[in-house]
Amino acid sequence: MKQIMYLMNKKVIFKWALILFLGICTFDSNAQSISSQYDYIVAKDNSSIHHSIQEVLNLIPSGNIKPVRIFIKNGVYQEVVTVDASKSNIILVGESEDNTIIRFDNHSGMRDTNGDTLNTWTCSTAFIYGNDFQAQHLTFSNQAGFNAGQAVALRVEGNRASFFNCKMIGFQDVLFLSGNGVKHYFQDCYIEGTTDFIFGAATALFEKCLIHSKKNSHVTAASTNSIIPFGFVFNSCTLTGDSLLNKVSLGRPWSPAASVTYINCWLGKHIIEEGWNNWKNPANEATARYSEFKSTGPGANPTKRVAWSKQLTEEQAATLTISKIFGAWQPTRK
To answer: Is the whole model's pTM more than 0.70, yes or no?
Structure first.
């Protein structure tokens, strides 16, 4: 009997030793795989020598045009992140969009470390000035609070920025697409805020994104230039709101020629039946370019929309292809 028990114990020990060995090998293999795919790795713990995203961005030389891939492990990175205009083709990849969070809670009216008063253009958590930037599986967050005023989570100024499976969360003025007519792409992203939380002058296509309102206010505040054919285009997106909301507009014009289009989007009950707002200026009704095509859901009321918005025809909607909106640029995961 003792011999049998001895053999059984040896088998158990061998089994667990094998499991541990395979686990170590798998972990080591994964680590090697990540190292081989990326130029830099950022981590909050000692698994990397780099603990700050900005620290790594500062290592990239000015004038860079080759792709630089940076892997960011799970953690909350309490820092302001700036991608300089002289550094193109930066790719930030998070370990997971729910747990890889870039957060800083500046807001308009605060003073920075130099004593300067922050405003909408200067209070962001992340500033993207370089061209051809891409982010995957990241959260950009500004939690300054419900009553803090303008508190940007992500400001994008550079051209041809793309975002895949990312989150932009905060309150007022969350996602600032500030470049005049530059082009951006968002796919499978989550964007959450209160007032004008998607705003700016850029041309941006949002595909299969979830847009969540937290206040009776406005989703967009586009400031599209009159010579730019497209502003914000939402394709197959879902618009939701906190349960008690019932007075949210699809957008109001930050500039007279604001352009916003919703195509095949599902709209929750929080969207007002008239759809749009003129920002207390009837003159904007003659110039704002607001349209929808086949909106569905309880917030879709095409017959009750304001007269100065448009319901697109099949033919008109069919022209709004990615190549029509972006020209030669075809955004893909890098």
So the answer is: yes
Contact between residue 276 and residue 309 where contact means Cβ atoms under 8 Å apart: yes
Q: Token pair of 289, please?
A: 């370019």
Question: Is there a contact between 276 and 306 (Cβ–Cβ < 8 Å)?
Answer: yes
Q: For residues 72 and 79, is the Cβ–Cβ distance under 8 A?
A: no
Supply the CATH classification number for the domain 41-326.
Answer: 2.160.20.10
- Name 165's Cβ contacts closer than 8 Å, sequence gap at least 6: 97, 136, 137, 187, 188, 189
Instruction: Report pLDDT digits (tens) over 251-291.
Output: 999 999 999 999 999 999 999 999 999 999 999 999 999 99
Q: What gap in Å lies between CA 332 and CA 334, rounded to an integer? A: 6
Catalytic residue check, 173: yes
Q: Which residues of the chain have pLDDT under 50?
A: 4-8, 12, 18-19, 22, 24-27, 29
Q: What is the 3-state secondary structure (H, E, C) of 137-191?
A: CCEEECCCCCCCCECCCEEECCCCEEEECCEEECCECCEEECCCCCEEEEECCEE
Nearest CA among 39, 60, 63 for reference residue 334: 39
The active-site residue, picked from 84, 132, 173, 242, is: 173
User: Which of 28, 84, 132, 196 is flagged as catalytic?
Assistant: 196
* 197-235 confidence digits (pLDDT tens): 999 999 999 999 999 999 999 999 999 999 999 999 999
Which residue ranges make up each domain of the chain? 1-37, 41-326
For residue 116, indicate whether it is catalytic. Answer: no
Q: How far apart are CA 162 and CA 43, in angstroms?
A: 23
